[in-house]
Every structure is written in structure tokens, then in C-alpha cells.
Specification:
The longest helix is centred in the middle third of the chain and has 38 residues, at 83-120. This protein is mostly helical and 199 residues long. The chain has helices spanning 3-21, 23-36, 38-51, 53-66, 68-81, 83-120, 155-164, 176-184, 191-198; strands spanning 138-142, 171-175. Helix 6 crosses helix 7. The chain contains nine helices and two strands. The structure holds zinc ion (2 copies). The site of one zinc ion has 8 residues, from strand 2 and helix 8.
């Protein structure tokens, strides 16, 4: 009665035994095959993904939702268990590369600032009031003095915001002097302009 199942089981057992004893060899072959045909695999994966994109995304979303708390708990637990390691690593990274990272960050920030200021100045980087052109003295000024919601104290962040929001025309480039002096005037006009007009 169960001879078929028996045989089947027997065969499975044999295969497993073979696999177990030749495991590293089989894996090596598989890896080699994969490496040799990697382009083909990539192509197939991409095609498969494109064909079933909606479905795959939907499934991933569902899986994530189903296991959300598990995922979160797991990564939280993992972090907590290895917290000392992570903190130490972060400290070491900072010590070893802090200077370098800071330099890169400054470079990246001034690049974005340059790009944004140049955009506002139609290709030129300068204060709309006095013409100051040293970027280190420049900042973005709120033409209508409505900058309270952006007062982060970082001209870089405002520049990033401006770029992201497609360069709102409510901003202009001004030097810190003009920007500051203007903000202190009751009519919000830079003293530069007023001295000129009363002369
Ligand atoms: Zn100025
Ligand atoms: Zn001015």
C-alpha cells in the first residue's frame, strides 16, 4: 500500500544524504553557475519584477504590515543587545573620520548654497542690496519678512528648502549685514537704501 510513499521517502532520504555530504561542492557549483550567468539572472529578475511589480509590492507591504511589530521588536532587540558595540563604533568613526566627515559636509553644504544663491542671482552670487559677493557673508532673506517659520538659524537648511520647493520668489540673497539691519528697521528697508535716498 505504502510502497510508493516508501520509495519516495527513500529517495528523498538519499538525496538529502547526498546533499549533506556534498554540500559545499554543490553550493560552490551553484555559485559558479550564478556568477557565470549573472547577467542573465539579473535580466530575468528585472523582467520578473517589472511584470509582477504591483503584486510584489503589494505582497511586501502586506508582509511588512503583518510582521511590523515583529520587525520592529527584532531590530530594537538587536540594537539593544549590541548597543555598546554600536556606540563604540560610532565614537571610533567620529574620532577617526570626524575631521574628514566634517570637511565633506561643509563642502556639500557650500555647494548647495552656491547653487541656490546663483539661481536667485541669475548666475551671480551677491547681496541684492550692497553687492557683497563673498558667500560666507551671504544668506537667504525673506522678502516679505515672513521667515519666522524657517528660523532655524541655518542658512544651509533654508537653501535646501528653497531648492526642494522650486525656488520660491519670496526669497532673495542678502548679506548678513543688510539682512540684519533691515530686520531691525521698522519699515524693513535696509539703511543702505535710505541713506542713498535722503542724500
Ligand atoms: Zn548687503
Ligand atoms: Zn543693504
Amino acid at each position: 500500500m505504502s510502497s510508493l510513499t516508501d520509495r519516495e521517502n527513500q529517495r528523498k532520504k538519499q538525496m538529502k544524504k547526498y546533499y549533506d555530504s556534498h554540500r559545499s561542492q554543490i553550493l560552490k557549483q551553484k555559485r559558479k553557475h550564478y556568477q557565470d550567468n549573472i547577467e542573465e539572472y539579473k535580466k530575468r529578475r528585472k523582467e520578473n519584477y517589472q511584470k509582477n511589480r504591483e503584486k510584489i509590492l503589494e505582497e511586501k507591504k502586506k508582509e511588512y504590515k503583518d510582521h511590523k511589530s515583529r520587525y520592529h521588536n527584532y531590530s530594537k532587540k538587536y540594537y539593544q543587545e549590541n548597543r555598546a558595540y554600536y556606540l563604540q563604533k560610532a565614537r571610533k568613526d567620529r574620532e577617526e573620520n570626524g575631521e574628514h566627515i566634517n570637511k565633506l559636509r561643509r563642502e556639500r553644504q557650500s555647494k548647495i548654497k552656491e547653487e541656490v544663491y546663483r539661481h536667485y542671482g541669475n548666475g551671480k552670487i551677491m547681496c541684492v542690496c550692497c553687492g557683497e559677493s563673498n558667500i560666507k557673508f551671504l544668506t537667504l532673506d525673506h522678502i516679505h519678512n515672513d521667515g519666522k517659520q524657517h528660523r532655524s538659524g541655518k542658512s544651509f537648511r533654508l537653501a535646501v528648502w528653497a531648492k526642494k520647493n522650486n525656488y520660491p520668489s519670496t526669497l532673495q540673497v542678502m548679506c548678513m549685514n543688510c539682512n540684519w539691519a533691515r530686520s531691525k528697521e521698522s519699515d524693513k528697508i535696509c539703511p543702505h537704501k535710505k541713506f542713498k535716498s535722503t542724500e
